[in-house]
Structures are given as C-alpha cells and as structure tokens.
Amino acid sequence: MPSSTSHGRRRSPGRPTTPLTDLATATSAGIATAGRRSAVVAAGSGLMIGMVAVPASAEGSSAGGASLAAVDSTVLTASARALLETSPVVAAAPDAVWGFDAPTLTAVTPPPPPEPEPEPVVETRAASTSRSTARAAVVEEAPAEQAAVTQVPASAVGNAIVEIAARYIGVPYVSGGTTPDGFDCSGYTSYVFAQVGITLPRTSAEQRHAGTVVSRADAQPGDLIWSPGHISIYAGDGMQLDAPRPGKTIQLRSIWQSSPVFIRVG
C-alpha cells in the first residue's frame, strides 16, 4: 500500500512593518471611501509622498481586500521619519463642498461732458475796414520798393564786370583787337563793359576821363585802372585783369603800376 507524505504549508514572509504601515492603511481606507487624493509632506527632507485614490471597483470584489503598498522608510532621514510618525492624518469628508462668494458688481454711468462755450462774435465790418486800410498801405509802398529794386548796387555791377572779364583769360593780345578773337588793352575793357550796358571810349587815354577818380583805398572790383598808355580792370585784393602786350594773353596778375589811377564808371 503506497504511503503518502503530507507536507505542511509554509506561510510566505510578509512585508516588514514600519511606522508608515498604519499611515498607509488609514489613508487607503479614507481614499477607498471618498475617492480623493491626499498627500503627506515630509518637511525635514523636502520629500513629498503622494498617494492617489484607486476607485473601489478596481480594488477587488471584497471590501478591504486590497491595501496600498507599504513605504520603506529606511531610506528617509531621521528628521523625515520623525515627522511622518508624529504628523496627523488629514482626510477630506465625503460630502465636502468647495465654493466661493461672487462679488456684486455695480455699473456706474459717467456724467455727460459739459456743453461747449459759445464762440465770440467777431464784427466782420471792422475786419474788412482794417484789411482795406492795410491793402492801401501796401499799394502806396509798392512804387518805392520797386524803385529800390531797380537801383542795382555798384558792387553788384563791379562783380559782374569781373566775372565777365575772367571769361576771356587766355585770349591772345592783338593790336587794335576788340573781339574775343584778340584784344588790345582798351579793346578788352570796352568789350567787357559793353556786356553790362556801359559804353566806353575806344582808347585808353579817352577811358581815363570816362568816370570818377577814386583813391586806391576806396577802389572796388570792376573799377578801371589807368596808367599812361595802358588800361585794365581791378579784380580786388591788389589784382587786375588786362591784355598786357603783343605775345601775351589776357591774364589775372598783380598790379604792377607804380602810381595807377582808379576810375569808377557809373
């Protein structure tokens, strides 16, 4: 007859019990009932242990048949463990309701803007009279202004003479010449002055008496410079424009005459 040997069942070793076991059990019971989230904060080490509620349908068919896994507190610092052992369990009531008081808003209508002040009444008759008077004054002053514009300053004419005379620098000296093809001294001066509407006599001896003699200190550009047998145009700053002699050309050069006479032709 065969013999049977019965072996006794050995209980599997359980998880170690730690100070967090009671906390985990109590928290899981509260979570299974309320279905909410709670947290325990270990302030000493800055560690937060979060426990998330598990719906009752996922825990199993038997109530209380499942529990959260125990937390190994051996890895925590001494201060964190002490805080976990002494901290109370915080749980929210199942019928807790959150709400806030809505403030009451009141609309305020701004006051209407003030009405604009009436514009002052201006008498148009007086304005018309004053404008007519001003226009009459302008008409009376117009002839005097036109006369002033007509009178060209001598300095402007003299500068124009110098500017025209400088255009012919390089033209050869030709005895008896009076055109840009060739000039002698008096033919050159008479041709330049004619460009500004001034007629000069043909020879240098006659041009000596064509205007008013002025001192060298008062001489201005555009004045004539006369010396026996020669005439030229003063260019200012001790310079003159002239047709020197055969073989030369019209040029700008320093005044070389020892005692020249300055003549202003008006």
Short synopsis of the structure:
Helices cover 30% and strands 15% of the residues. It is built from 6 helices and 10 strands. The chain has helices at 19-34, 78-86, 124-150, 154-166, 185-194, 204-207, and strands at residues 38-42, 47-51, 178-179, 182-183, 212-214, 224-227, 230-236, 239-242, 251-254, 261-264.
The coarse overall form would be: elongated
Largest sheet: 6 strands, antiparallel
Order of helices and strands: HEEHHHEEHHEEEEEE
Poorly predicted sequence stretches spanning 5 or more consecutive residues: 31-65, 134-150
What is the share of helical residues? 25-40%
Radius of gyration: 61 Å
Distance between termini?
Answer: 170 Å
The overall strand count is: 10
Based on secondary structure, the structural category is: alpha+beta
Quote the beta fraction. Answer: 15-25%
Number of helices: 6
User: Within the largest sheet, what's the order of strands?
Assistant: 5-10-6-7-8-9
Overall average pLDDT: 72
Report on the architecture of this protein.
- It is built from 6 helices and 10 strands; from the N terminus they run H-E-E-H-H-H-E-E-H-H-E-E-E-E-E-E.
- Strands 5-10-6-7-8-9 form a 6-stranded antiparallel sheet. Strands 1-2 form a two-stranded antiparallel sheet.
- The relative contact order is 0.09.
